[in-house]
């Protein structure tokens, strides 16, 4: 059996744009040979086994089945768990950052590893926090919410490939799903 994988589809079911039913998404993955397909929430989070699908094959199949174009980031279960485990902001001991509100803490995952990246000035971002992971993740805590972020849009243009973000609550749900699997 192939190890479990996580596919993160960018921008589906955000507001009324790019609407995709999760049942349709599960059918797309099954049609590509995936097994044990589970969708989490309505924001394009798919955990599956049985097939080492590539982002381009998923993107093409989703477009053909639903008419929706969405960039996809695919990770092995091990890669996803490592990204979740290495979050440097989860270990900060200040009361504000240890807030139970996971909707204000985000993990942005890149489709490709990144090299040198210039971070915005921490004082300019404060009280927000922004940290880089080892290779494919950017961690962000936004006490005023994601719509009020102080990170300039130009920062995100430094990264190769596609980017997709999930809040800490969603990351936790995916990790919990992966924990139910035997790989």
UniProtKB/TrEMBL annotation:
Source organism (scientific name):
Lacisediminihabitans changchengi
SUPFAM superfamilies, A to Z: SP0830-like
Protein name per Swiss-Prot or TrEMBL: DUF1697 domain-containing protein
For this protein, the record's InterPro entries field holds: DUF1697
């Amino acid at each position: 059996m192939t190890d479990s994988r996580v596919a993160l589809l960018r921008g589906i079911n955000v507001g009324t744009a790019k609407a995709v039913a999760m049942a349709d998404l599960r059918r797309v993955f099954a049609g590509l040979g995936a097994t044990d397909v589970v969708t989490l929430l309505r924001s394009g989070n798919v955990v599956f086994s049985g097939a080492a699908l590539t982002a381009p094959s998923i993107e093409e199949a989703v477009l053909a089945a639903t008419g929706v174009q969405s960039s996809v980031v695919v990770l092995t279960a091990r890669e996803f768990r490592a990204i979740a485990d290495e979050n440097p902001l989860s270990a900060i001991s200040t009361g504000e950052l240890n807030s139970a509100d996971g909707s204000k803490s985000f993990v942005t995952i890149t489709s490709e590893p990144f090299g040198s990246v210039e971070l915005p000035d921490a004082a300019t971002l404060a009280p927000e926090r922004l940290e880089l992971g080892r290779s494919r993740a950017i961690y962000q805590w936004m006490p005023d919410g994601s719509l009020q972020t102080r990170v300039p849009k130009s920062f995100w243009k430094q990264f190769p490939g596609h980017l997709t973000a999930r809040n800490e609550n969603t990351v936790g749900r995916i990790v919990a799903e992966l924990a139910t699997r035997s790989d």
